[in-house]
Amino acid sequence: MSEHVPVLIAGSGCAGHTAAIYAARADLKPLVLEGNEPGGQLSLTSDVENFPGFPEGINGFDLVENMKKQAQRFGARYQYGFISKVEPGSPLRCTTDGGEVITCDALIVASGARARRLNVPGEDELFGRGVSSCATCDGAFYRDMEIAVVGGGDSACEEALFLTRFASKVHLLHRRDSLRASKIMQDRTLSHEKIQVHWNTVVESVHGSPEKGVEYLQLQKDGKPEQLKISGLFLGIGHIPNTEFLRGVCELDEEGYLVTQLGKTNGENVKTNVPGIFGCGDVVDKRYRQAITAAGMGCKAAMDAEHMLAERKAEAVAGH
Ligand code: NAP
Predict the structure, then answer these.
(1) Beta 239-241 vs 92-96: how paired, if at all?
(2) Which of 86, 194, 215, 237 fits 164 for a cystine, CB–CB 3.0-4.6 Å?
């Protein structure tokens, strides 16, 4: 099967949906491939308190669902699946995981980033059986149990705070002696009666069985071995950009983030080194990584794609 669309959008988080709203309103009939995690990371977030326009906060899933409905109202189409291969050219030729070929004049990459793993023994075997990267999804399984969260950033603090709703105690394990999280999240975390922070603590291995789940962690605390009995381990240690399908096609940085023209004049920062391919959201941005900044970049990507298509059309008319 093969089809051609003017604008193809890879990913359905804040950036992808916003690009879809703008592209659809510009009558570019965008097709959105929803990606591995429809709705993106925001759909796994409980309360979003910093997206402007929601004074009482809004559930992350509801926020992205609203964005999707808004894009659909203007004619954006959504389809499950993700891009596994991109061949540059005009049109660009994209192959999906299901083997479908979709050609497009503009490709907006909004494929986001996924949770980083510790890469320690026991983690993979017990993933989904006591090890999780989503407190919102799995927290309720640990009612009245002791659990641990690893990491020292906003994600780890947010997960730890959320998990206090269920767990009897949350151990926050951080490899250094100070948190990276924002001041407000630090204050909430450090003052919470159910959260115990373990400084200078590294998780060396995860122990348990698929039947019983996680039973204990082998730690290195202040350089000394220590065991911690817990029933669940949540990973809050950052993210890896979903750019595997762009390797060898677009310029990526040393961590795999898609390189766009950051720092160019007029706030232009969504064009990649390949004509017709634009990048927005967490797949590009390792600095801000906010719902609102992702949405802003999604808007820019759609506007720049629209501008490029209009220029090409004008050139084609002038050439005849
Ligand atoms: P992050 O800020 O990169 O923090 C990752 C944390 O994990 C760091 O504390 C890091 O330790 C630790 N870490 C990384 N690799 C590790 C490993 N292999 N073993 C042990 N620890 C490891 O990532 P994030 O917390 O996901 O936040 C990303 C961005 O999203 C930030 O800009 C954040 O502000 C934003 N965010 C905001 C909210 C909110 O506003 N509600 C919620 C979530 C995220 P070190 O500190 O030693 O490097």
Answers:
(1) unpaired
(2) 194
For 295-304, write each residue's pLDDT tens digit.
999 999 999 9
Q: 154 CA to middle of ligand 1, Å?
A: 6
Q: Which CATH superfamily is domain 131-235 in?
A: FAD/NAD(P)-binding domain (3.50.50.60)
Q: Which residues line ligand 1 (CB under 6 A)?
A: 50, 116, 118, 150-156, 158, 175-176, 180, 182, 236-239, 289
Say which CATH topology domain 2-115+239-319 has: FAD/NAD(P)-binding domain (3.50.50)
Q: Where in the chain is the domain with CATH 3.50.50.60?
A: 2-115+239-319, 131-235
Q: What is the DSSP letter of 35?
A: B
In sequence order, which residues have a C-beta less than 8 Å from that of residue 285 and are 6 or more positions away? 257, 293, 294, 297
Q: What is the pLDDT of residue 41?
A: 81
Does this model's pTM top 0.85? My answer is no
